[in-house]
């Protein structure tokens, strides 16, 4: 698999290093005016030369045809896909976007391109494995304790632009759908220091409460999630979310459990 990455900021740099170590990175893009342009990626990451020259994200179609990546992972800003979804669809490059803060109309545009433009897109504000497990747990609690008060609380570093986080909005929405009264779930944000990412669901009744929380204490968690998403979307078309990956994994695991049960059962019958 060949992966292109756009965005070499706080998160993108860690993702670049992770993908480089996995030997799947073949193209890295930065802003046209960036001082990182035309440098070897190793210089940006403070390691030995990688042989990958950082390119600018303009004239993207030509660059995608030259490098032929299977998937582009986006850790830049919502502007990138807004301006470039055309070029990605034309060159048949699938997309994993971890970017947050899209307007609803932008999400619809991206969804349309994925559904009609013959490419695969995963939109993943919630890229880590752990936070997706938190979501599943929160959905179960919402189904069982609809009469409790639900709040989503998140904490991130002081440079984060959007609030509440894309993940917090997604968690709140998933809970709302499961609640009997379909009521909006409030989400509160703290921006302070260097916090990498914390999400908590507070479920509070008159006499007791449940808290479900997840914390990323390394951005490698985002890199792992993005790589998993890139593997999933390779060769697919259409619009997906991280839950689709977990659903596929659950079904595969279920099949394995059934197969090993059948095997064990057959052995027992043989012995009898
Ligand atoms: N889904 C998830 O779990 C995660 C999502 N994110 C999201 O990823 C995005 C980036 O986060 P950070 O790395 O903290 O931000 P950052 O501001 O440190 O880095 C963004 C980088 O993208 C570059 N960039 C912006 N627009 C560009 C364009 N059109 N073409 C090329 N490069 C462009 C900027 O120059 C900058 O270097 C945010 O939307 C953030 O919410 C970040 C971490 C995890
Ligand atoms: O900007 C970040 O850093 C993060 N953004 C994501 C979001 O908005 O949900 C999630 C992650 O915890 C880090």
Descriptive account of the structure:
With 272 residues, this protein is an alpha/beta fold. The protein has two domains: 3-123, 3-Layer(aba) Sandwich (Rossmann fold), CATH 3.40.50.720; 132-217, 2-Layer Sandwich (Dihydrodipicolinate Reductase, domain 2). It has helices spanning 10-21, 41-45, 60-67, 78-91, 104-116, 129-144, 166-178, 220-233, 242-271; strands spanning 3-6, 25-30, 55-56, 71-74, 94-97, 120-123, 149-156, 187-191, 197-204, 209-216, 238-240. The strands form two sheets. A seven-stranded parallel beta sheet has the order 3-2-1-4-5-6-11, sandwiched between helices. A four-stranded mixed beta sheet has the order 8-7-9-10, covered by helices on one side. Helix 6 packs parallel to helix 7 (166-178). Residues 6-12, 29-31, 34, 57, 75-77, 79-80, 98-101, 124-125, 127-128, 222 line the site of 1,4-dihydronicotinamide adenine dinucleotide.
